[in-house]
């Protein structure tokens, strides 16, 4: 059997929540009520300690673990598990008061006062030391407690600091990168432009509100540095944890559409991925929201190539969006099961109980201010818990994908920073979502991967808008196609290198030109109201935003522009390269052109849907599968609010929740079904 549980000491689906009992320390009757309600809600886990530092270390070096002792003991006696968090996400007053260096400095050079959370300086030696101390105490005290199954490091790392310590660390980072040679830096940054040549590393300042932002290589390296320094901070957190509790797996909770950290760089310091999902349900067609959310589930699963945890989600609404809408009946269970379908081994909520005051008092929670189980939200959570128990055999199983979409943070940063194209509206996220959706709506499992990840085994790899392609990526893509893969690239491919310098001698750069068999000459950015057209297959497709003018070298032209002065020049090409093929889409379309191209590639490659879909499934419907190597589990989800859908399976299968066997299934609005195909 092929299984891997994120928390190996608890090989089950986890159903739990962020739990902040320290807010109720003066009314412990609430704790006892919580224990009863946790049982009723069919939960089996609570994540504790996230913001508990002020209680655990009320003054410097004075520790008081009584509340945590009591709560972990209660949760354990209640038959449930704990994911223990390190408290570095928010600090106690005394720490900021005594050591102001722990407070962040903004881009304007102004140091923050004590406020908010997730805003410490990640370079400060004092903060690092204090965090290591408290983590050591926690590890020593709870590391061998059988109730504790994993570590949750800090909370949603984000942001940057411009203090002197961070600026110095950035200079060291650059010295290391450029062999302590300022000329090498100048050359790679094209710094002679506007006479901005650096005479020494001390002249370098991080890009900010009043500082240099015109050197793109510098901007990119600053973003890389922020990821690097966040990671260095996490490594400090982990020192005592790895030493004292090598048996406990570690994660940190990542986020939706998070821009500022390259999470691919976290893979060698965490043991499993986890993330916090807060989609804007009902803000438009829910299938659009569902497929975007699916993209991030797929990314976090692909990150570590194994099951991940949905660390936070709201059972109803959040309180920090401009409009905070309740999840409609059915959608909470469906969106929870969506995570499972994509490879999550948990459904966890923020938060277990609504706080009574402060900024999150109106954020959704399993238990509201009424404190009872007699609510719609509580019943929904309970239902999810019951379902997870019924399908527990799926926990630990994998998602096998035959296709992947490449998404890359560095590419996004470089692309957004570049002054050109549609200057402030490149739409990289949206474009990646659009390509991913092609598979989502056909019921085809899809991975989201870095351009440097191992692509062997994928039948189709899509690389949208891969503007920054460094030497390693070019090699990786070339080898993938050469060995028989199908690569589907687009406009802007292979434009700049790792330092954001333009490739000379024609793009797509270097060997990519041979792989695609084309050379690009110019890109036309259309005004938002402009349209262009191409004919591919039988149909005409509308083109928007970008039309790249390319010339075939060895590629075959399969679609040409129908309008403008570049009429008749190629819009889509296909090139054979060794054992594989490379398709190039030179212009952006809404969806119909890429949909037609993907149909062609699916046919050619033999990629299959997990259901019997020919072409797209009914609107709003999707399907995914997980496997333990012996059994196949198929999830069918319907995101339509008012239409039921009929889906044909590949053969008769058992519905795991009703016990019935069927081949044609009817899925209610906001409904789902889980089938098992035994081998
Ligand atoms: C994040 C945080 C939580 C909470 C939720 C609210 O995910 O990690 O502490 O603030 O947002 O949605
Ligand atoms: Zn700093």
In words, what does this structure look like?
With 679 residues, this protein is α/β, with parallel strands linked by helices. Among the domains are: 403-605, Rossmann fold (3-Layer(aba) Sandwich); 621-678, Golgi alpha-mannosidase II (Immunoglobulin-like). The chain has 16 helices and 25 strands. The chain is globular and about 75 Å long. The N and C termini lie close together (12 Å). It binds alpha-D-galactopyranose and zinc ion. Alpha-D-galactopyranose binds at residues 155-156, 276, 278, 312, 318, 350, 360, 363.
Specify the CATH class of the domain at 403-605: Alpha Beta
Q: Tell me, rounded to a whole number, the average pLDDT.
A: 97
CATH-defined fold name of the domain at 403-605: Rossmann fold
Q: What's the alpha carbon Rg, rounded to whole Å?
A: 26 Å
Strands ordered across the widest β-sheet: 11-10-12-13-19-18-17
What is the compact description of this entry?
The chain has a seven-stranded mixed beta sheet with strand order 11-10-12-13-19-18-17. It has a six-stranded parallel beta sheet with strand order 5-4-3-2-1-9.
Question: Secondary-structure map with pairings?
Answer:
Layout: E1 14-19, H1 29-40, E2 45-48, H2 53-56, H3 66-77, E3 81-85, H4 93-98, H5 125-142, E4 148-152, H6 164-177, H7 182-189, H8 216-244, E5 250-251, E6 253-255, E7 274-277, H9 286-304, E8 309-313, H10 331-341, E9 346-349, H11 376-390, E10 403-406, H12 409-417, H13 428-440, E11 446-449, E12 460-463, H14 471-482, E13 486-490, H15 511-516, E14 518-525, E15 532-536, E16 539-552, E17 556-560, E18 570-577, E19 580-585, E20 587-589, H16 592-605, E21 621-627, E22 632-638, E23 645-655, E24 661-667, E25 672-677
Parallel strand pairs: 1-2, 1-9, 2-3, 3-4, 4-5, 6-7, 7-8, 10-11, 10-12, 12-13, 13-19
Antiparallel strand pairs: 14-16, 15-16, 16-20, 17-18, 18-19, 21-22, 22-25, 23-24, 23-25
Helix pairs in contact: 5-8, 6-8, 8-12, 9-13, 10-11
